[in-house]
Amino acid sequence: MPADAPRGPGRLFVAVNGLLAAMILAVFVVQAWQGHETAMESGRREAGNLAASLEQHAAQTFAGLATALDELVPLLPVERLDDPALAPALHGLLEEREQGLEDVVALLVLDAEGRLLHSSHTSRPEDLRPASAAALAAPPPGSSGQLLLGSPSIARFGIHAGRPVLAAGERLLDRDGGRAGTLVALLDLTRLQNFYDALEVGPQGVVGLARADGMPLVRQPVGGAPILLPPAARGTFLGAGGSEDGGIRLVAYRRLPGQPLLVHVGLGLDDLLAGWRRQLRSEGTMAAVLLIVLLGGAALIKRAIDARQRAAQAHSARLARLAAASGELPAARAAEPLAARLAAVIEELFPGRAARVRLAGGVQAGAAAEADGAARLMLRAADGSQLGLIALEGAPRSADEQAVLTQLARIAAVQLENIRLLEARARAAAEAEAARAEIAGIFEAMSDAFCSLDHGWRFTHCNRRAEQLLGRPVDRLIGHPLWEAFPETVGLPVHAAFHRALEEGRPVELEFLHPSLERWLEIRAFPHKGGLAVYFRDITERLETEAQLRQAQKMEAMGQLTGGVAHDLNNLLTVILGNAELLAERLGHEPALQRCASLGLEAAQRAADLVDRLLAFARRKPLAPRPLDVAALLDGLAPLLEHTLGAGIRLERVEEPGLWPVLADRGQLENALVNLAVNGRDAMTPKAGGPATGTLTLCAANKRLEEGEAGEEIEPGCYVELAVADTGSGMDREVLARVFEPFFTTKPPGKGSGLGLPMVYGFARQSRGLVRIASHPGHGTKVSLLLPKAPAVPRRDK
Q1: Which residue, of 3, 317, 429, 508, has the fewest CB within 10 Å?
Q2: Phi, psi of 602 (to 5 degrees)
Q3: CA 38/CA 33 separation, integer angstroms
């Protein structure tokens, strides 16, 4: 067995070399076949591309000719082509059109039998020689819309004599659709022939333009039989290509769309494969040399195989461990485990040799291996800064060991940089998150609403107060443009102010009534590089409070003025009334004078009543407040109100069970309710005349005013609300603002004193209560009296 052992590797080596030789031959055959196919495919592409170019060139040439003939046909008098009188005119027309057509020898008009009638060369076509006329035979019929093409011939007249020409024409139809003749253009083929002659298609190449039936029109080389092609619009095949030399060619053809023409290109097969055959000879020589070298060097290769295998195995093992380390080291997320793992990997790669890893920051791992003679390798960052040190006992024994150690150091340095980068990112993310949370907390803690807008007017941030004030959840605002979320604000002052702030880079402040929220907002907008920071607050209650305060101050001032005037008038009226009564008594024997005195007394009494109302508004009229049963008071007042209102108005009562008693002057309260009922009746009276109609509602309910809803005009506590509501015409805001002013009235002259509502107002305020009014044009008016709850319940009279 030991004697046969060497034969095994020898036979294996021979088999391997035989297999290599077979592979070389197989590669040679495969490459030869692939080279052949590549050469053929290149030829097909070359022929196809050239055919496509020729198709485009021919299409442009004949499309222009077809267009010119199409434009000329309508100008010909088809019904009178044989009229001699028209010959000069038609000659001039054809001559003029010929001059504008390049490569056109002549324009001719033939009759239905093919006889020449008119020519662009002469006004007397009969002067043409018969030989020339024979060249003008009508071309074969073509499809509708296509040119009629004849066979190539030689021109025998004019400056084009001796040149190849092609007759191309269009039918001339009479009004019944019958053929009346043919319009023919003789096209000089010289330019086309020169173009085709200039094409490089090889010694055996053929290129040409032919009719759809295969008749050659232009060909290079000149001559040849009609080409027979498949009926398909385009294609490629191996054939003679219309040549009579018997050579095989790779033929590509294209039929022109819309015209009875085709172009074809034939590349000689020998020309196409010449390069491949040269390459085949060269590669065959190389394969033979390679086989000789392979067989000759087999012995040398055999001796080197074992040594290389051993070195390769050791190198592969080291690379495999290095690859494994490349996956293990990135798993470490901190410097300490990275150093420990790196030291262990080094000792595995270099068995029996101690390793030490020291990282910046004092991190160490591994045994003491930094004695003299130890290999040291710095760990450096991408910017060159030192990250640590690797120490390996003993110097590297080969370049391979040095390369492995260097690669391992690079992997460790990259991972150490990644660890530091991740730690820095984590710190930065934590700091950024803390900053965002702090900023968000500041915005959420603000009493003002806050929104941030980018330059596209999209919401980027809204605090909770903004969400509450705008009545929209944050997810319906963030990312949406302001002017789309609130389109009703476009065109309002806030729209112009925001644009001005961004354009000028200056803060703006404004107050405006938001139409959809129906709230007054105070807005401050500050532009910044990211857009616009907007702070806003609801100032509706503040404005309403200020308006109420101004109204109260105005009413207080008017009350003081009215009270003073009424007091002075009352003093004067006392004297007038006394003297009027005295005169009336002493003038009893003179009836006429006594009547005058009585009239003066009545007028003074009415003036006294007016003063009494003014004193009531000014809250100077003495009151006798006492606890009143509201339900009983309304029961007693209802008949009077029904009589006052009239039959056309229905009186309704809405009373809450368990009404509290009120503390008020009974007479003044009844007078106030009657005044309000009369005002309601007048509001329900048509302006055009007629009886009043509608509904007057008396409402009574207990009401508790808390600290926040009481306001400055009334103290918090328990009240009874007495309301009178009508279904009349209502009032607008301007009228509502003045209804409590003395002598202000909307009634016609002589119909009202303007003191009814002021008296009610004064009575309510003097009774430590309040009067409120609500009205809308067309929807009636509601006046509410808030009177304080009485401390004790009175006994209801039987």
Answers
A1: 3
A2: -65, -40
A3: 8
Q: What region does 362 belong to: left with phi over 0, alpha with psi -120 to 50, or beta? A: left
Q: Give CA–CA dist 271/43, Å, rounded.
A: 10
The residue assigned the tokens 């009352």 is: 570
Global confidence as pTM:
0.35
CA–CA separation, 113 vs 402, rounded Å? 100
> What secondary structure letter does DSSP report for 233?
S
Structure confidence by residue, pLDDT tens digits, 457-491: 999 888 888 888 888 888 888 888 988 888 888 88
With H, G, I as helix, E, B as strand and everything else as coil, classify residue 514.
Answer: strand
How many C-beta atoms surround the C-beta of residue 662 within 10 A? 28
Q: What is the mean pLDDT of the chain?
A: 76
Token pair in block for residue 576: 């007038």
Q: How far apart are CA 259 and CA 387, in angstroms?
A: 80
Task: Write the CB contacts of 320 (distance below 8 Å, at least 6 apart in sequence).
Answer: none
Domain with CATH 3.30.565.10 in the chain: 545-788
pLDDT at 659: 93
CATH number of 192-269: 3.30.450.20
pLDDT at 476: 86
Instruction: Output the CATH code of domain 313-424.
Output: 3.30.450.40
Separation of alpha carbons 664 and 650, rounded Å: 27
CB burial string 265-294: b at 16+ within 10 A, e below? bbbbbebbbeebeebbeebeeebeebbeee
**For 174-214, what is each residue's pLDDT tens digit?**
888 778 888 888 888 888 878 877 787 777 778 888 887 87
CATH number for the segment(s) 449-538? 3.30.450.20
- Alpha-carbon gap, residue 203 to 268, rounded angstroms: 8
Q: Which two tokens stand for residue 294?
A: 């392979």
- DSSP conformation class of 755: -
* Ranges of CATH 3.30.450.20 domains, the chain: 192-269, 449-538
Q: Cα separation of 743 and 759, whole Å?
A: 11
Give the β-pairing of 386-392 and 355-359.
antiparallel
Report the Cα–Cα distance between both ends of the chain, in Å, rounded: 145
State whether CATH 3.30.565.10 applies to domain 545-788: yes
Nearest of 275, 267, 276, 239 to residue 43 by alpha carbon: 267
Q: At what angle do helices 298-328 and 7-72 cross, to 10 degrees?
A: 80
Q: Which residue has the tokens 């910017």?
A: 383
Is the model's pLDDT at 412 over the cut of 70?
yes
H-run or E-run covering 280? helix 269-296
Rounded Cα–Cα distance for residues 479 and 318 (Å)? 56
Peptide bond connecting 221 to the previous residue in cis, omega within 30 degrees of 0: yes
Q: Nearest to residue 105, comparing CAs of 59, 69, 140, 155?
A: 155
Q: How far is CA 793 from CA 74, 525, 716, in A?
A: 115, 58, 21
In the three-class reduction of DSSP (H, G, I as helix; E, B as strand; rest coil), residue 554 is classed as helix
For 683-701, the DSSP string reads HTS-TTSS---EEEEEEEE
Quick one: pLDDT at residue 564?
Answer: 59
Structure tokens at 591: 């009836």
Angstrom distance (rounded) from CA 612 to CA 624: 15
Please give the structure tokens belonging to residue 240.
Answer: 């003679």
At 502 the three-state DSSP class reads helix
Answer yes or no: are the C-beta atoms of 766 and 619 closer than 8 Å: yes
CA atoms within 13 A on the CB side of 492: 15
Which contacts (CB < 8 Å, 24+ apart) does range 504-509 have?
none
For residue 258, give the amino acid letter: G
